[in-house]
User: What shape does this take?
Amino acid sequence: MPRKNIAIIEDDTTRRREYVALLNHCDDLCCLDEHQFSNCEDAIPVLQKDQQVQLVLQDIGMPEGKMNGVQSLLKLKKKRPQLLVVMLTIFDQDEYLFDALKAGADGYILKTEANQQVLAHIRDALQGGSPMTRAIARKVIESFRREVPRTPPPSLTPFQERIIGTIAQAEDLTGSIISNAELIEKLGVKITPLELGQEINKIYRILQVNNRREMLKKYQDSWWPFSRP
Assistant: This one.
């Protein structure tokens, strides 16, 4: 099977070479010499025409006075709308991050990510996905929550809101289901696991869900102003 051609636009020479070496050690991916760029001005004329390139790794923040990654994204997509452009970013570049989202970026990769995760994101994009790290996804969600008007909250008590927020925070950090006993400890309240289970069942009825997974999904997807722990 032919290898997928990846282009890189990255002004940091060391980082660019690291990405090139990473790609060229793969059986399914590669980055040719003519597809390695230190600035957008040199890259755009080539990538607008070169049909070999299927995906571009585009650094968002370029040197002052040079075209930035969002401007490059817009120019590339205008000429080649099917070209995949995955942004390379650092966590605190919010202004570029959301501009890139609106401009049609196909994914976002943090520069601090491990090599194998970078490759997984690239392959995901090539297969039709929209790779985005959990940290970036959370910033996007939080941004939308600030911009979208909130809908009225359901009739939950402050304690019930704390329960949901504590579960969401704990399970987001650990990636595993927190037990009622652990939840009581984090809540810092005097209540038995049985009583806590009864309280969680009340939440299910109020939110019209059947289990904890559905409860957390409704919590994450809604704009209700639940209290955070």
Notes: Residues 223-229 have pLDDT under 50 and may be disordered.
